[in-house]
Specification:
The complex is a heterodimer of chains A (511) and B (343).
Chain A (H helix, E strand, L loop, with lengths): L2 E10 L2 E11 L4 E5 L6 H8 L7 E6 L2 E3 L4 H6 L2 E4 L11 H5 L6 E2 L2 E2 L1 H15 L14 H14 L4 E5 L7 H16 L3 E5 L3 H7 L2 E6 L2 E8 L5 H9 L18 E10 L6 E6 L3 E5 L6 H8 L5 E8 L2 E3 L4 H6 L3 E4 L3 H5 L6 H6 L3 H4 L8 H14 L16 H15 L3 E5 L7 H16 L3 E6 L2 H7 L2 E6 L2 E7 L4 H14 L4 H9 L1
Parallel strand pairs in A: 3-10, 3-11, 6-9, 9-10, 15-20, 15-21, 18-19, 19-20
Antiparallel strand pairs in A: 1-2, 1-4, 4-5, 7-8, 11-12, 13-14, 13-16, 16-17, 21-22
Helix pairs in contact in A: 4-5, 6-19, 14-15
Chain B lengths: L12 H25 L6 H25 L8 H19 L3 H26 L3 H20 L9 H8 L8 H19 L1 H11 L1 H6 L4 H27 L11 H10 L11 H20 L4 H30 L3 H12 L1
Classes of the chains: A alpha/beta (511), B mainly alpha (343).
């Protein structure tokens, strides 16, 4: 099936989200759709899947104009989407979920044997290892995606939209998913692949379309004619700039944090490392390797069950997060800014001052807004948070500015050690560099940073040394030479070292 | 007007203010209506009765408001109120303690029962709805067993005398007590670290916790305060009735939610409006008093209050959606504006 997007435009009050977007999606191809946050990808996907109607232009299926008034129309036309938010019912079985749109019946009641045999038929096309009688809540995220794809196939989808499919699955699972994608493409399906990850796009797609500021920046370019630099240039409208870290001299004689054979209530074993003053210590690993969980244990949000944690040479036990902050000057920036990092409905002022409320309050516990502003204002200026007012609700800021507010909060608290978890996830490339430079700057001022990231270029730009984590243990430590190729090979080597034999087997099982 | 944060900061600021203005307009409308239909509505006798029941409605509203701030609820306020009422009756009539001592002890009992709610909620991690539903029945049952549902109606005469007291012809001192409590709550939520912590815990407990706010403690304190406020409302009724009756508190639940929700306190937590709660209570009291003066039965009052709560919840829902759309959604637009500015 050929899907033609012809001169599509969409306006929202005060802003044009899409303008004159035209390209074609062909059967038997994997078509990557790229763009920064706010480039219009989501709006376009919503139009293609019938959630929005375009204000201008039209969609054509095999040359015939179509008008989708609901997602149901799009599905009927053979277009299905696998969204980031899962659309499966956790307490229903895999089979029931796949067949939920049109369950086979006998004498007016659902024929469950047929539900499972039909579901099996679709699932066998992509992954025979998943049992149709398992409840969906017991599956991994990757398996849920497979089930969603099977559901789309059962609806006779000929265009399959995958929206950030690898955002929350491991590298091996992603490889298995790509195998499925290739197979479906070879069978003549059109796959639209939305992703932020350039490496993935280069590896899997046949053609790439890039949106920038709601317009086409590259339309259906064959991937063979593109390279990383060209795609980035199309996305940001200029060449990529790497953060200038300046000369970094870390005094390795001063250890501010040291873990000695730490085991945690979350399942870490034998974790040992040293963080020096002014150092950026990277913590790399696949999703699920236990990095965020380690951060939680270090800040007192989970328990250290054996081994020793030393801060500035003294053994400590941290009972809870407020103690970590107040007594040990240890802060944590979550990867999930919205759920765990900031109070979106509250103003910048109080989101920064929250960490020092107790400290700036008078003897009676009184605080005025002026007190908070005195703390927040200099930091908003110093970190160049772009906002019309310090009273702006944080939820209205862009991702990059939200992250600056998070960092400002910890500078206000006067932390000495900051754990930063995925500092630039969901932040556009332009702002990324600014955040990187900011992290470099605060360490030059004496802060020590434990940096968790799944973004290899980011790790190699920022970290002085890199701890590689695998299965809740440290697999190795690497000095950063800032040479991307050998570094990434060495890191991936450490990650896969233990599972070298298991890896191909797992892939076959999933594929 | 809005104690949680500077008005400019709130995405729903306009909605918030228009909400208060709208509420005031509706109240004025009802006052015109009742005054023209039943001139007795503005008699000093009725205004006095109105000011006394307004005082109680305001404090009941505050009792729920401080818990809504944490994103929770307290269904036990009626039970806590009546426990405090019966305790004060017992202490004054049976034990013969002086009035201030008995009142203070009754308030402490209310605070303790609220603390108990908060403690169990935080320790168990179970939703406050179910915990306070259980404790409401538990407290009420305990009180009935201990008191055998006997009314204490031989209280010191000063009690009833204070309840009958009028300032300026028709203002009960109880109303000033309620407004003083309101002023204290404004200070709490606007000018103290504790109040901010309660609001932060309500708006996003996880983010607050990771920012160093002792969230569990904030929730327990909010419930303790709610218990003390419920006890205060109960004691106000003791002054008004001149007796401690076991039937007090049974009909508090609806008005306790109506006042804050009408006044713009978010059910989801993180934002309270003290002035709004006072206005919300005023609307409830006005309706009750007006329907009474017009001799329309209590049945109609129930129907009206139910309708109004439903309408208020719809507005709250709309406000939530609106605020979210303004602040979180439209990432597309924000991003575009951003790049537009830089370009």
């Amino acid at each position: 099936m050929r899907l033609t997007i012809e001169g599509i435009g969409k306006d929202f009050p005060g802003v044009t989200a899409l303008d004159d977007v035209s390209f074609e999606i062909l059967p038997g191809e994997t078509h990557a759709l790229m763009g920064e946050n706010g480039a219009g990808k989501s709006t376009l996907i919503k139009i293609i899947t019938g959630l929005y109607r375009p204000d201008r232009g039209r969609l054509l299926v095999d040359g015939k104009p179509v008008d989708f008034t609901s997602p149901r129309d799009a599905i009927a036309a053979g277009i299905s989407a696998v969204h980031q938010e899962r659309n499966l019912i956790p307490r229903f079985t895999v089979g029931e979920n796949i067949m939920i749109e049109r369950p086979p019946t006998r004498n007016g009641v659902i024929d469950f044997d047929k539900v499972h045999s039909e579901a099996r038929r679709f699932l066998d096309m992509i992954d025979p290892t998943i049992d149709t009688r398992t409840e969906v809540r017991h599956l991994s995220v990757a398996q849920m995606q497979i089930v969603e794809i099977a559901k789309a196939l059962s609806l006779e989808a000929r265009v399959l939209l995958l929206d950030e499919p690898t955002a929350s699955i491991t590298g091996h699972e992603a490889d298995a998913l790509f195998a499925v994608v290739r197979r479906l493409r070879d069978e003549g399906k059109a796959i639209v692949f939305v992703s932020h990850k350039l490496e993935e796009v280069m590896a899997i797609s046949d053609r790439v379309t890039v949106l920038r500021d709601g317009r086409i920046a590259a339309a259906g370019q064959p991937i063979a004619q593109m390279d990383r630099g060209k795609i980035v240039t199309a996305m940001i409208g200029r060449e990529e700039r790497v953060a200038e870290m300046g000369t970094r001299s870390v005094d390795r004689t001063k250890t501010v944090m040291e873990a000695r054979n730490v085991a945690t209530s979350l399942g870490h074993k034998n974790v040992s490392f040293q963080l020096h003053k002014g150092e950026i210590l990277g913590l790399y690993g696949l999703v699920g390797a236990g990095r965020t969980e380690l951060a939680r244990a270090l800040i007192g949000d989970a328990r250290i069950v054996s081994g020793e944690l030393r801060l500035n040479g003294n053994p400590v036990t941290i009972p809870d997060v407020p103690t970590a902050i107040r007594r040990h000057r240890l802060g944590y920036i979550s990867e999930d800014r919205k759920a765990e990092g900031l109070i979106l409905t509250h103003p910048i002022r109080s989101n920064i001052a929250i960490s020092v409320w107790r400290r700036i309050a008078s003897a009676l516990g009184l605080i005025t807004r002026a007190d908070e502003r005195r703390i927040a204002h200099p930091l908003v200026e110093k970190l160049e948070v772009k906002t019309p007012s310090i009273e702006q609700a944080v939820g209205k800021l862009s991702g990059g500015n939200q992250q600056k507010v998070s960092i400002a909060k910890w500078l206000a608290a006067g932390v000495e050690i900051l754990i930063i978890d995925e500092p630039t996830v969901g932040i556009d490339i332009k702002t990324k560099t600014a955040i990187h430079e900011l992290i470099g700057e605060i360490t030059r001022e004496g802060l020590s940073v434990l940096l968790i990231s799944s973004d290899m270029p980011e790790m190699i730009t920022l970290a002085d040394r890199i701890l590689v984590m695998r299965d809740f243990a440290i697999a190795g430590t690497i000095e950063n030479t800032r040479r991307y190729e050998p570094m990434s090979r060495e890191i991936m080597g450490l990650i896969h070292a233990g599972s070298a034999d298991a890896a191909p087997a797992a892939e076959t099982a999933h594929g | 007007m809005t104690p949680s944060s500077d008005s400019r900061a709130r995405p729903s600021w306009l909605a918030e203010q228009s909400n208060l203005i709208g509420l005031a307009a509706i109240i004025i409308l009802f006052w015109f209506l009742f005054t023209s239909l039943a001139p007795g509505f503005v008699s000093s006798f009725n205004l006095f009765a109105l000011s006394r029941s307004l005082a109680v409605d305001i404090v009941i509203g505050f009792s729920t408001m401080v818990v809504l701030a944490t994103g929770g609820m307290n269904l036990a306020i009626g039970s806590i109120g009546v426990c405090a009422v019966m305790a004060s009756g017992y202490l004054m009539q049976t034990i013969g303690l002086p009035i201030p001592v008995a009142m203070a002890l009754a308030l402490l009992l209310g605070a303790f029962l609220g603390w108990l709610n908060g403690f169990v909620i935080v320790r168990s991690g179970v939703n406050s709805f179910i915990i306070t539903l259980a404790s409401a029945s538990l407290f009420l049952g305990g009180m009935l067993i201990l008191s055998k549902a006997q009314t204490f109606n031989a209280l010191p005469p000063e009690i009833a005398a204070f309840g009958r007291m009028r300032w300026g012809g028709f203002v009960s001192p109880l109303l000033l007590v309620a407004l003083a409590i309101g002023a204290a709550l404004v200070v709490l939520f606007r000018f103290t670290a504790l109040g901010r912590e309660i609001l932060a815990a309500g708006a996003n407990p996880r983010a607050a916790e990771l920012s160093g706010v002792p969230v569990g403690r904030a929730i327990i304190i909010a419930h303790t305060l709610s218990g003390a406020l419920a006890a205060s409302a109960g004691l106000m009724l003791v002054f008004r009735l001149g007796a401690a009756m076991p039937s007090i508190g049974q009909d508090w639940l609806l008005p306790s939610f109506l006042a804050p929700v009408l006044g713009g306190t978010l059910l989801a937590g993180g934002f309270v409006s003290v002035v709004g709660t006072i206005l919300g209570a005023l609307l409830v009291t006005t309706l009750r008093s007006g329907l009474l003066v017009m001799q329309i039965g209590n049945f109609w009052l129930q129907l009206f209050l139910g309708l109004i709560l439903l309408a208020a919840v719809m507005i709250d829902r709309y406000r939530g959606v609106y605020a979210e759309r303004r602040s979180l959604g439209r990432k597309t637009n924000l991003g575009r504006k951003e790049s537009g500015r830089r370009a």
